[in-house]
Amino acid sequence: MGHKAAVSMLVLLASCALASVQGPARKPQENLPSDRTRRQVETIGSASQAYVVRFAGAVDGAMTRMPISYAAYKQGWQPNLYCRIENVGDTDVINPWLTVNGLGDWRTLEKIAAEATRGCTTDAEKARAVWEWERKHRFHACTWDRECDDAVKVHNVYGYTLCGDDAIIIDDLFRAAGLKTRPGRPVGHCVTEAFYDNEWHLLDGDEHVICLRRDNTTIAGEAEVVRDHDLMKRTHTYSIGSGDSPLTDQFSASLYGYEGDRTGERRRSTTHTMNLTLRPGESLEWRWDHVGKEYSYAQERKPGEAWHDGLGTLNEWGGTAYDNLRNGKWIYRVPLDRAVWTRGVVSAENTASGVPPPALQPADAAKPAVVVWKLASPWVFVGAQVRAHYTLAGDGPAIRLTFSPDGKSWQTILEDSKPGAGYATPSFDTLISPRGKPTYGFFVKLELQGAGSRVSDLLFDNDVQMSLLGMPELTVGDNQLRYTDETPGQRQVKVTHAWLERTEWVPPTAPPSPLFPADGATVEGTQFTFRWEPAVGRGLVPRQTEGGVQGTDVPSVAPAPQVADYHIEVCDRADMRWVISPNFEKLISRTPSKGKAEWQVPLVGLLNPGTTYYWRVRAMDSHGVWGPWSRRWSFRCEGPGAPLNLQAAPKADGTVGITWQANPQGRRPVAYKVYGSDEQGFTASDTEYIVRTGRGFCDTMEEYNARDKKGEDPFWGDVKTPANLITKTDQTSLFVVGPDFVARPNKAFYRVVAIDAQGNESGPSDYAAVPRPFVYTAAPPTARTAEAYRYEPRSIVSIGHFTCNGSYNGAFWHREKITWTLEKAPEWLKLENGVLSGTPTAAGRFGVSLKVTNNKQQEARQTFSVDVR
Prior knowledge:
The chain contains nine helices and 55 strands. The protein is mainly β and 869 residues long. The strands form 16 sheets. Strands 1, 3, 5, 14, 16, 17, 20, 21, 22, 23, 24, 25 and 27 form a 13-stranded antiparallel β-sheet that branches. The longest helix is centred in the N-terminal third of the chain and has 14 residues, at 163-176. The termini are far apart.
């Protein structure tokens, strides 16, 4: 602020609890002395105009960005500085926009869905494409309100969602792509299902999860995951940014336990569009830095107060999340030198143009000139400032600027009455987007009074919040830009791109060749280790000298970078559009192969025999620069397919047998392994493994809360569990339940694995469940008078599976409990504590009937006779 005389300025501040959020500006990135600033200006005169921006540097922002994952992604060195669209003509410009290389038209929900599903021909492809697009254009964070329920706002303005927001957004995108949807029912989490191919399918954009059926192709529905948690346990959860963690995958599975009806649909939440109008003198500027201004619904966290939901700002999600915030500019320099300035106002009273230089002044000096402007943007405003040059004459309040969020109530932001020339720059950031009230439009009123009072220059300088991934980013090479607008008639627009070019950094090479599998090779089995020829960090680069560019044998100024990480993708599509499943996109640094040019498939059976697969790898160097992808390589697996149609059938003799069929896909099996467990959705294992049990067996929340410490309970926490391999057979059937305790496992659930002649194993089959309750013991058929008779009947019982109840209260909540009832028996035979006993007093044949009932309202009976001699 400056003035030849004193200026009296009133900036009315909102209370801290309602003030707009201002934090530290993003730390300036470290540029190199050799980086060169480039700038390209395009003059636009048509409604659709294409042009090319040549980015001649060696490194761009996309190359330094870590893969988008569940948590906030890390953005490295970013050469883009700003991109400005400016109306330099005399007519309003309606809905101007830029796309880069055919991408980025996210002005409406329908346009986002169209970009996401481009090239898709089936509903299955559309659903997968929407899920892929959504999960790779946001990260997990929020500021605790419903702003992020709108897909257009998220992808242009904010860039982040929680699961509750994301389930709503992906629902809107599915429907915009022509798919039917319904909400999922997990505990403590939100998801959406899409309907195609006459079935429901679960696609979780927040946690980056799809669960494939045993065919390794079809995406399972939520009800299938509820039934068989192993579908989730064999899936990598929480995205490429997380390491493999079977216990985490078990916890993710525990959220799925709802067995009721799945009906209803959400209402559409996306109503926002990126429609905008630029008046003459107005400009929109995407910027790749930020000054620390953001919108938040959350309440301010007090010093020393522990963080919890509903407090703080984006910074609460960590420095990386905050670093991904961007502040753009929305600037309006009122063209007082042209008559068109009056077309940009809401209202104007008693105004007149002054003599050169052009200025605004009262037409009648006895009355004030009053002008109202509206500033409106599809990006949320997070800061505002007025810059005004003026000259005042006379006494009294000669100039006053006031702010209104609605055009009704007004607050003073500048007031001055001192005669003479003045220049004021009042900021009213604290009135813009106060917590809980995002500002997308506001009003500013100018009141000017006195003969000779005039305003010669007036500019509104506003900060807006922008999503980093929703900006027109230039990358290395020829960028194909297209400008469009919907302006009728003539327009005159100037578009300016500014960026840095860096030549001292050079991306690492692509891995040159595969070591295993060789390109086009056939592999024995479905679990093996991918290996490739290492990439090379390129530290020898051309260097600018007075005589020109020296050769590549001249060392770079910077140390030679080393390869720091690899990124592998394995696909079942030749176009590499998406990976098979979340198991097959990996940062090697998040795996046991860290530091090596290799990666092992985590489980047997995630690949299908006889199927052509494709893979590729790229490298990242120690500067954080990703190199190009390798060539696409292919391979096939040989081995048996997972057994099909596994069923359990009770027999009249009190036994249960299981039967299955060999899978026609893959080699003919020569043997099978059979696994059994009382845990629903168990994981087949030949060795000891760990089961997450939470607080063990619980029936009520009171019991759960009382079990807050392990104590002597062996079934509490993360429990080492014995192998559940039962036997090996060359048949396609096996008796598994019966009174012979040695030969029969007598378990509630079974899976089968196939083995071929080369010893390759398939993945586990779906499970078969034994009918429950089912009495598998046989009573002693004879007794002697005056001698004690005893029979302890036993029934098949499921211990259920690890689930969460109401919130993240993980335990085995669904253990089956049984009750025995003696329906028919001689007087000497009694049932106490589940044991049938007594002493017969006379010989004869006596009929007995036992009923067993479980807590699922299911029952079974055992009838038999006892011959007393």
